[in-house]
């Protein structure tokens, strides 16, 4: 073993001895699973051995313009020469102000106030607290409205509030005693329709159920929270056209606030800057994270309407303040990265240029859809879910112990592609800067990797 190999072996051993990895069954996490990333450039990540991989899920759905994007690197360095951190609790700084102004220029209409935090989970947590407190204390609120409605399968984060709002059964079973109850409507999962119907041609039973639940619970619902257009971590479940718009109409009709969780779908992933734009929907509260800083630094934002904001205005001793704020809320380095990220979107006309890439991705996915164990390929913009099944006829799942999704990603690694599955759904979500040639390669490797194990 040469010096470099020995150093790597030691790193892997130290990593496994010292780090408790997130969302990872450590007992089964072996040295073979540990891939040590040393650097990145554009759409590629490079490991300590100097092997390049396409970053097929944009470093957990965050990276937008590629790694080491010059403008973002420079913005962070320049900010570093001024100050790395200063609090937003009682003080302000220019990057937070400029970033908020720029964000407000592009978010759906009616949203006027930016509340910063550090992760998608906190953005959601804040949205829930905001909606709840608004109902408790605002002139337009109703203190009986203390509950939330959401969709089955939804993932809104891993903190207690966001898990409560979410609909992942496994997490609810594990943490049940710590969670608050919510009203759940069935997600529009057309491939496995919970109402036994098939789209198109169905009667939208999912929307009828959602409306019935809203009608029955409106008096106690502070808000409905939904991922617009695509339920990401649920398995890239793409909502049928018109679904989101109808949900917005129903929320308005029944007097329930609408929280749009665009943590996953925001910043160009669906082909528009925000997914709500596809159906001309304006939520009452918008949760943003992941791509906000271009995939560079932890930054999130919860953006509210003026009506909601005003519900918190009062004399100090009326105690209507929004009681929230973390140490690193609105960190200047992260805000500087976000400003540069938004500038690149505008300067390089990223959204305008994405149509051709999305089309190429659709073409590249076509052969994958006919593989023996591919039940369905779902795509919206740059977001792709490939659902693997043991049997295409019956749609039978693989036994969980088979870990088929995991096997596919290990094959992909061997071929120079980093992806991460959601159970048996293989997810592709490349950075928006990916070229058409790189898209072809991404699809080819995915095809070969699935064929190798399924
Ligand atoms: N909301 C959605 C829709 C997400 O997809 C995620 C993460 O995947 C979150 C919230 C939580 O974000 P974070 O992991 O940054 O806390």
Task: Walk me through the structure.
With 454 residues, the chain is an alpha/beta fold. The chain folds into 2 domains: 35-64 and 351-453, Aspartate Aminotransferase, domain 1, CATH 3.90.1150; 74-347, 3-Layer(aba) Sandwich (Aspartate Aminotransferase, domain 2). It has 14 helices and 17 strands. The strands form 4 sheets. It has a 7-stranded mixed sheet, sandwiched between helices. β8 and β9 form a beta hairpin. α12 (354-369) runs parallel beside α14 (436-453). The protein binds pyridoxal-5'-phosphate (PLP).
Major β-sheet profile? 7 strands, mixed
What number is the mean pLDDT?
97
Bound molecules: pyridoxal-5'-phosphate
Distance between the termini: 35 Å
Please identify the structural class as seen in this structure: alpha/beta
Q: Can you tell me the number of structural domains?
A: 2
Number of strands: 17
Q: What form results from the Cα inertia axes? A: globular
User: Please, what is the CATH homologous superfamily of the largest domain?
Assistant: Type I PLP-dependent aspartate aminotransferase-like (Major domain)
Query: Per CATH, which architecture of the largest domain?
Result: 3-Layer(aba) Sandwich
Radius of gyration: 22 Å
For this structure, what is the CATH class of the largest domain? Alpha Beta
Low-confidence stretches: none
Function: Catalyzes the transfer of the alpha-amino group from S-adenosyl-L-methionine (SAM) to 7-keto-8-aminopelargonic acid (KAPA) to form 7,8-diaminopelargonic acid (DAPA). It is the only aminotransferase known to utilize SAM as an amino donor.
GO cellular component, one term: cytoplasm
Protein name: Adenosylmethionine-8-amino-7-oxononanoate aminotransferase
Pfam families: Aminotran_3 (PF00202)
């Amino acid at each position: 073993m040469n010096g470099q190999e020995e150093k790597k072996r030691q790193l892997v051993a130290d990593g496994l001895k010292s780090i408790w990895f997130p969302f990872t069954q450590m007992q089964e996490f072996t040295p073979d699973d540990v891939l040590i990333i040393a650097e990145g450039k554009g759409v590629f990540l490079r490991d300590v051995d100097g092997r390049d991989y396409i970053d097929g899920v944009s470093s957990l759905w965050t990276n937008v313009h590629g790694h080491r994007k010059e403008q973002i690197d420079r913005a962070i360095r320049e900010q570093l020469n001024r100050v790395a951190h200063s609090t937003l609790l009682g003080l302000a700084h220019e990057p937070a102000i400029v970033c908020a102004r720029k964000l407000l220029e592009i978010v759906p209409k009616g949203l006027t106030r930016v509340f910063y935090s550090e992760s998608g989970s906190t953005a959601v947590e804040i949205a829930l607290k905001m909606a709840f407190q608004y109902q408790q204390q605002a002139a337009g609120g109703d203190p009986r409205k203390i509950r939330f409605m959401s969709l089955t399968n939804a993932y809104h984060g891993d903190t207690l509030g966001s898990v409560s709002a979410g609909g992942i059964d496994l997490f609810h079973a594990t943490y049940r005693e710590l969670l608050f109850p919510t009203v759940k409507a069935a997600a529009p999962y057309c491939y496995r329709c919970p109402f036994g119907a098939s789209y198109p041609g169905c009667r939208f039973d999912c929307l009828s159920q959602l409306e019935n639940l809203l009608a029955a619970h409106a008096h106690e619902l502070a808000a409905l929270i939904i991922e617009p257009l695509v339920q990401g971590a649920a398995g890239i479940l793409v909502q049928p056209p018109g679904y989101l718009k109808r949900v917005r109409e129903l929320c308005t009709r029944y007097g329930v606030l609408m929280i749009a969780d665009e943590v996953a779908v925001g910043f160009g992933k669906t082909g528009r800057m925000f997914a709500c734009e596809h159906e001309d929907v304006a939520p009452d509260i918008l949760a943003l994270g992941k791509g906000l800083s271009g995939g560079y630094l932890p930054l999130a934002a919860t953006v509210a309407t003026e009506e909601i904001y005003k519900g918190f205005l009062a004399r100090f001793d009326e105690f209507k303040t929004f009681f929230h704020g973390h140490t690193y809320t609105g960190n200047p380095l992260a805000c500087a990265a976000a400003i540069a990220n938004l500038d690149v979107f505008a300067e390089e006309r990223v959204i305008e240029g994405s149509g051709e890439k999305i089309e190429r991705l659709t073409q590249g996915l076509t052969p994958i859809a006919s593989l023996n164990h591919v039940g369905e390929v779902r795509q919206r913009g740059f977001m792709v879910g490939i659902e693997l099944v043991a049997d295409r006829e019956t749609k039978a799942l693989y036994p969980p112990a088979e870990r088929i999704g995991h096997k596919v990603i290990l094959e992909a690694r061997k071929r120079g592609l980093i992806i991460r599955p959601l159970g048996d759904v293989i997810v592709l979500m490349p950075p928006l800067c990916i070229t058409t040639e790189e898209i072809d390669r991404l699809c080819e490797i995915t095809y070969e990797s699935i064929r190798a194990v399924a």
